[in-house]
Amino acid sequence: MGYSYSIHDHFVRAILGNKEMARAYFRTVIPDYILDTLDLSTLRPMSESYVSADLKKILSDVVYSCKRKDHKGDAGISLLLEHKSAPDKYTPLQIGSYLFSGYRQQVRQGATPLSPILPILFYHGKDQWEYRTMSTLFGETGQKVGDEKNLDLYPFIPNYQYIYHNLREIPDGKIGSSENKFLSASLLVLKHAFDRSWLSDNFMSFLIDGLPYGDKELQQAFITYYFNRVDFSEKQAEEKINKLPLNIKETVMSTYDRLIEKGRLEEREKVYTEKLRAASKMLESGFDFQLISDILDLPMADIEDLGKK
User: Fold this and answer.
1) Cys staple from 218: which of 94, 214, 240, 255, with CB 3.0 to 4.6 Å?
2) Alpha carbon distance 114, 99 (integer Å)
3) pTM of the entire structure?
């Protein structure tokens, strides 16, 4: 099973890697009957040693633990940040790999008894996706037939519950009613991440209502994600930014300028790489070094280096 990060992953990790944002998020998505047993004031990020080496890069920033209110031990809260922006039928299998990795690590660390892990799946894709448990991957063997389980193999099928947070199904008003205004703005941007016109129309409200309530790193992550999801030209972006209040205008403009410069550097790097590729082919065809340099506007030293290879 392979793992890759997208612009969505990076933004969600930035938000929920922040303890205060994570605490506000957990209060929003964890059912009340579970929330009533947890003391979220004791929330703390788990060390990287909590997960195995193969999962460290995926989970190390977004695994938290907190005390129970009854003081009977720790309850591990696991936010599975290989979150989904598109449906994936094998997600229960992926969640299971996280759970058992976490429990194995507890055993290695001498935990007695083990602490329960509450997995949370965060989905914000544009397509419909229903909650599914592990048993659904086994076809009829994992299903009920009337009041009976189908076949005697059912007891051997691993199954577990997880908290499913489908952001697409939550009304905007409810998302925006969170006491944490930065989290509300971030979740709204994620919910409408595939609706560029909606994001454009709500530019001012997002930044004015939410941005001042996040620290500098969170603000930069928000701005970076937002501008990656809209189709503003540089002129349009500058016109919108110039209408912002002074308390956030400078932060937005400086972050946007860095994004533009990064894009230009990446474009120049791409052009340079293409020129080198063309120069290599011209050398193979017997073109003169100076002619290649003149045609492709490349330094002679670069052409000579290619000729030595």
Assistant:
1) 214
2) 12
3) 0.76
Query: H or E segment at 251?
Result: helix 246-284
**Segments of 112-231 assigned E as strands:** 117-123, 144-145, 148-149, 163-166
Phi and psi at residue 78, to the nearest 5°: -115, 115
Give the three-state DSSP class for 74: strand
- Tell me if 78 sits within 8 A of 117, measured CB to CB: yes
Rounded to a whole number of angstroms, the CA Rg of the chain reads 25
Domain ranges of the chain: 7-169
Strand pairing partners for 68?
A: 38
Nearest to 276 by CA among 304, 300, 301, 306: 306
pLDDT digits (tens, 9 = 90+) for 254-292: 888 887 777 666 667 777 788 888 888 888 888 888 888
Q: What is the residue whose two structure tokens read 């007891």?
A: 155
Contact 29, 165 (CB under 8 A): yes
What pLDDT shows up at residue 214? 85
